[in-house]
Amino acid sequence: MNNHVLAATAAFALAGGSANAEMNFNRIASFATPLNIADSIDTKRETSAEIIAATSDGMTLVYTDSPLGVLGLIDITDPRNPLPLGIITLDGEPTSVAVSGRHAFVAVNTSESYLRPSGHLAVINIDDGSEISRCDIGGQPDSVALDGTGGFISIAIENERNEDAGDGRTGQMPEGDLVMIDLVGEMANCNTLRRVNLTGIAEVSPEDPEPEFVDINGRGETIVSLQENNHLVIVARDGSVAGHFSAGAVNLSAVDTDEERALTFDGSLNGVVREPDAVKWLGDNFIVTANEGDMDGGSRGFTIFSRDGTIAYDSGISFEYAVAEIGHYPERRSGNKGVEPESIEIAQFSERPLIFVGSERGSVVGVYDASDPANPELLQLLPSGIGPEGFVAIPDRNLLVTANEVDLIEDGGVRSHVMIFELQDAPASYPHLTSAGISQPNGSPVGWGAISGMAADTDGNIWAVNDSFYGLQPTIFKIDTTRSPARMVDHIRVSRGGFPAQKIDMEGIVPAGNGSFWVASEGRTDRLIPHAILRVDAGGEIVEEIGLPAELNAVERRFGFEGLTKMGDVLWMAVQREWADDPQDHVKLVAYNTATGDWGAVLYPKASADVGWVGLSEITAHGDFVYVIERDNQIGTAAAIKKIYRIPAADMAPAPLGETLPLVSKEEVRDLIPDLLSTGGYVLEKVEGLAILPDGTAWVSTDNDGVDDHSGETMFFTIGKI
Asked: Is residue 684 part of a domain?
């Protein structure tokens, strides 16, 4: 079966079969890591949830936070209402954690340099935060794993290379190895520490193994990934090497290899080494790797190996395609490693062995049924926070937990989060929108993202546009809302002179009859992008461009048209924020008469902001009212204004430019913050789209910024009859 067929099959299960299945994982809560430091550390400091584990009763989560040098604790007695339990300060940087009972086994990096690595294993009493014991492990640790019987712990001593030294490649001493320490109850017996020499095994830099991740099966065998060495090693309970093999390489076709602000999927990559990061046992005889890559590779998928190194299954490009179909493909990583699968968790739910594959750059988790290791089935894709780094499954409570490491505090963005999913007898709540079922000419998926303006058609479908993030691929999408999830059923590339239209930023759309459209383009005159109204024919060709009149050009600012609607012959554009001649906290609704060519405007009174700014992001006419989205530029708990207002159509009487503009009245219709929190995530910033079907059913969408410093999550939902 070729890669695209695999992707299509997976997407069919995702878009149709999964939603009708009896059991699905749905997100029920999110926990922002700054909640754990509110009483002890400045919450403006960077914090991060990386590797995560749970106590034996499944009631407490323990995660590593390397920026702060602490363990974070979360009470999930009620998983829908996770509560902060604070932090435990460590003597160094935690790299990994495993839990037995109420004791945490933490790998702590204390290295003073790459040339002088050091670290220890700290055993921590979770209840009082005390350090019970400490074992010097003689190097810089990465991953830890506990034997299921409680007999021992394995620790990968990476002694990572300095990427800025020499050619940045492996071959930098001291080399890494594996440390094994016996346990007595829930105590580590440091006197039993033994080192497993891993040199002379890998084909790549055999003198310098860099162990990355470890896991232990039911036989007490440790599987070790040597990521930069592109190798896997099986170590027996007694510390002897029981087997090893190269992770190998793949050839990928129809893959996006260029960061050109377009989702092309027309390149090829040959001989790409897998360089697995996370590795997990699937039973005692199969091994699953997340092929993130690092030094030389990254095959954008995951692989299931038999213990002898033969390949039972490789996802090829299918995982990346499935991620692209739900709008999570990270275009700005195309030239590197694409979606970068980094994390793996394996657990049995409802008598099925499941593989959870985390895309670090796509911020999504793939859920696979591995009942047949040679043919795993993609069941779901789950929306995670930015940069899922670690997972813990709690089957006894039907829970999956993800730790998402990226904290955008310095950019005023979303904070690091822990997210909790529950296996429910309910339809899948995500994705909200998919392009499964349509493809590009070469059979690859129609990737998408950065959805901005929307409008309903008379046939009950919705048209949407992407914004300038995809500067070389401006696209109009047709969306069927009768499917669950909603389905993109067509796409039209916008062109000028037969080539992809550049210097446009589509933020609004309205059908113009005979398959053509009016499109609002937000300008950025400092980058030679004009504010404009475009008329686009049914094939996507721009056939008319209408620039601003002199009166508006004299006062424009870069935050321009956000949304477009039509009332009779008049096009109305919402201006996002104040232009030079606007009173404070007032913005223009600009009118253009398509029959006479006359321009006019009214003034809209918007809210003021205590933090950041407030502006308009959409305008839609329906019945006796014109509806607008008014929002702030805040995210998460800082968000305060994400609302729909309506204006009486009778107020929309534009004054000619240069005259005093009439002030319209407004009435709040809906606060969207409860809707944005309804799927257990945090409040997304950019509520950008509003479309109202002929029967009055309203649909709302968010802009995911092209998955750039964003989780990629797009919410596309109905609020019912407006």
From this structure: yes
pLDDT score, position 530: 92
Give the model's confidence band at 9: pLDDT under 50 very low, under 70 low, under 90 confident, else very high: very low
Residue-wise pLDDT for 417-455, tens only, equals 999 999 999 999 999 999 999 999 999 999 999 999 999
Q: How far is residue 149's CA from residue 155's CA, in Å, rounded to a whole number?
A: 16
Cα 208 to the chain's mean position, in Å? 34
Report, as an integer, the average pLDDT of 128-138. Answer: 97
Burial 405-418 (b: 16+ CB within 10 A, else e): bbbbbeeebbbbbb
pLDDT at 10 over 70: no
**458: exposed, middle or buried (C-beta count within 10 Å: 0-12, 13-18, 19+)?**
exposed
Strand, helix or coil at 346? Answer: strand
| Rounded mean pLDDT, 675-683 | 98
For the chain, the domain total comes to 1
Q: Model confidence over 525-543: pLDDT tens digits?
A: 888 889 999 999 999 999 9
**Strand runs labelled E in 315-471:** 341-349, 352-359, 364-369, 377-383, 388-394, 399-404, 417-424, 433-434, 451-456, 462-466
Q: 458 is in which domain, residue-wise?
A: 451-721
Provide mean pLDDT across the span 638-667: 97
Q: Residue 719's closest CA among 692, 684, 679, 694?
A: 692
User: Which pLDDT score, from 0 to 100, does residue 588 have?
Assistant: 98
Tell whether 522 is covered by a domain.
Answer: yes
DSSP string, 237-271: TTS-EEEEEE--EEEEEEE----SSS----EEEEE
Tell whether the model's pLDDT for residue 94 goes beyond 90. Answer: yes
Of all residues in the chain, what percent are helix, strand and coil, respectively (each to 5)?
10, 45, 45
Report the distance separating Cα 314 and Cα 2, nearest Å: 12
Q: How far apart are CA 168 and CA 336, in angstroms?
A: 16
Contact 557, 578 (CB under 8 A): yes
Q: Closest Cα partner for 323 from 652, 541, 695, 7?
A: 7
DSSP β-bridge partners for residue 286: 282, 306
CA 231 to the chain's CA centroid: 28
pTM score of the predicted model = 0.95
Is 412 inside a domain boundary?
A: no
Tell me how far apart the alpha carbons of residues 82 and 63 are, in angstroms, rounded to a whole number: 14
The mean pLDDT of 664-675, rounded to a whole number, is: 98
Are the beta carbons of 161 and 168 closer than 8 angstroms?
Answer: yes
Give the integer Cα–Cα distance in Å for 618 and 641.
14
Confidence check: pLDDT of 2 > 70: no
Please report, in angstroms and rounded to a whole number, the separation of the first and last CA atoms in the chain.
Answer: 46
Burial environment of residue 314 by CB neighbours within 10 A (0 to 12, 13 to 18, 19 or more): middle
- The half-sphere exposure of 722 on its side-chain side, counting CA atoms within 13 A, is 30
SS3 state at 654? coil
The CB density around residue 593, as the number of other CB atoms within 10 Å, is 14
Is the model's pLDDT at 313 over the cut of 80?
yes
Residues forming a β-bridge with 235? 222, 241
The first and second tokens of residue 182, run together, are: 């016996």
CB < 8 Å & 24+ apart, contacts of 579-582 = 579/552, 579/555, 580/554, 580/555, 580/556, 581/555, 582/555
From the list 399, 390, 361, the residue with the least C-alpha distance to 107 is 390
Q: What is the CATH number of the domain that holds 556?
A: 2.115.10
Instruction: Specify if 278 maps to a domain.
Output: no
Angle at alpha carbon of residue 455, lines to 452 and 461, rounded to 5° = 115
Per-residue model confidence as pLDDT tens digits over 484-514: 999 999 999 999 999 999 999 999 999 999 9
